[in-house]
Design goal:
- With 95 residues, the protein is an alpha+beta fold.
- It contains four helices and two strands.
- The protein has a two-stranded parallel sheet with strand order 1-2.
- The longest helix is centred in the C-terminal third of the chain and has 13 residues.
- It is globular, with a radius of gyration of 16 Å.
- The termini are far apart.
Length: 95
C-alpha cells in the first residue's frame, strides 16, 4: 500500500527473484572508491541474499570502511542477532 507499484515495476520488475526492470543492468561498483565518509557494512555469515563474500569485496572497494560479519545470522541480522547488531551499530556511530 505504501509502494508506488508503477515505479517498483519499472525498476524491479514483477519478481523479487529475477530482476527484469531498469535495475537489471544497474552497476555502481566503479563509484565505490569515491565514497569518502565512514562506512559500515554489516552482513550475516549465513546471508544468502547479500552474500558475505560479496560484502567483503564491496567493503574493500570503499577505502577505510568497516565490515562486520555477524555469526549465526542471515539476511536479517538486526532481527536474528539484535543485541550484537545494535552493539556493532552503536560502536560505529560512537566512533
Amino acid at each position: 500500500a505504501t509502494v508506488n507499484q508503477a515505479i517498483y515495476m519499472y525498476m524491479q520488475g514483477p519478481s523479487e527473484f529475477t530482476i527484469t526492470g531498469t535495475f537489471k543492468d544497474y552497476n555502481v561498483t566503479s563509484f565505490l572508491p569515491q565514497i569518502a565518509v565512514p562506512t559500515l557494512f554489516i552482513v550475516g555469515t549465513e546471508d544468502e541474499l547479500t552474500l558475505p563474500w560479496l560484502m567483503r569485496a564491496t567493503a574493500e572497494a570503499v577505502g577505510g570502511s568497516t565490515l562486520v560479519e555477524i555469526q549465526d545470522s542471515g539476511h536479517s541480522s538486526y532481527a536474528e542477532q539484535t543485541a550484537v547488531y545494535n552493539a556493532v551499530l552503536e560502536g560505529f556511530l560512537s566512533a
